[in-house]
Amino acid sequence: MDLATLIGTIAVFAVVLIGIMMSGSLRPFWDPGSLFITLGGTIFSTLMSFPLRTFLDVAKITKQAYFSQEEDIGETINTLVRFADKARREGLLALDEDANHLTDPFLQKGIRLVVDGTTQELVRNILETEIAFVADRHKMGQSVFETLGAMAPAFGMLGTLVGLIQMLLKLDKPEEIGPGMAVALVTTFYGSVLANMIFLPIATKLKNRSAREIFIKEAIVEGVLSIQAGDNPRVVQEKLKSFLSPKEREQVILPSRRGAQSGAAADSD
Q: Most CB atoms within 10 A, among 47, 149, 170, 200?
């Protein structure tokens, strides 16, 4: 579970609710009709904007924002450097068995392409094409929540207009104008809540996750091609370290030196 997303969601609702209760009651902020217009209009207008299959994947996409764990780029780099060391000592075919134990399908595909003797240009084209399609799929999910975030305030305003029209019909009853105005504004409140506290933050989280995943896949492409080229494990290490931030470089222990030492020990035996 992504703690930042969970804590942020709970905290932002808590801040708004506590702020309301500090100055009054929650009761005026509850109106089923306003919620029906805002939430219903937002959902069905978004449904009009996307294929049904894409829209039905909203629950799955939301789960990605709250429960998906980010890949550890340091561990991925460790694996690539270890593979580079093994391929240099035993040959590319020695990686065939290791590929079967990889949990990352993208890395597994890259290693198997190399083991199968695919040319470097074709390996790069295949992997980069997959990255492009992954990015497109991610953008579709992000755009669903961006559309929800755009529609919610619009239907909040629409609900407000409906309430104002109904209120104007009761100008002969001054005592009902104040409560009517409050109910009319509640829909705008709902639209802002849905957009700024749910939909747009999730869209941003998905965008950041996608950028991180694409970044790691690009590192994998460079690592796989270096392995195929027979680069020294230390060269692979230094090349892939460029994908790490200074903080990550300090925290990640790359095994190339230990791998080189073990390889030298094995050769001396």
A: 149
